[in-house]
């Protein structure tokens, strides 16, 4: 296989109520540049897909960023290898809390960033989702 899949899963296991059947991965590492493509991270546990018990945007963002850091580290990198984030929030009033919390994890890193306010995410209790890409030097 050309690419390394980190934490492969099927959506029928993580979204049983939605009757989906998609083979996905939490991250994909490509060779010849070691790019880490991460699935949009939500406020849930990577090992169990259980949501954290919080409706606070800052607490949800902490979990999202912890997941991103864990996936980069599992791929052999560090947060300094983060190059891009796309932040999705469901309420513009959460922007400050989300970005302030995210800033704790990317201080000194300087990734490019895009932010979007969306009507909803895959689960109604999620307030934030972050899509991230890292490049691990050879």
How would you describe this protein?
- The chain is an alpha+beta fold.
- The chain is 25% helix and 30% strand.
- It has 3 helices and 6 strands; from the N terminus they run βαββαβαββ.
- Strands 1-2-3-6-4-5 form a 6-stranded mixed sheet.
- Helix 2 runs parallel beside helix 3.
- The mean pLDDT is 89.
Question: How many helical stretches?
Answer: 3
Main beta-sheet strand count, sense and barrel state: 6 strands, mixed
Beta-strand residue fraction: 25-35%
Strand order, sheet with most strands: 1-2-3-6-4-5
Shape: globular
Structural class designation: alpha+beta
Order of helices and strands: EHEEHEHEE
CATH class: Alpha Beta
Mean pLDDT: 89
- What's the CATH H-level superfamily name? RutC-like
Contiguous runs where pLDDT drops below 50 for at least 5 residues: none
CATH names the topology as: 60s Ribosomal Protein L30, Chain: A
What is the total tally of β strands? 6
Please tell me the total number of domains.
1
Please tell me the CATH architecture by its name. Answer: 2-Layer Sandwich
End-to-end separation in angstroms reads 19 Å
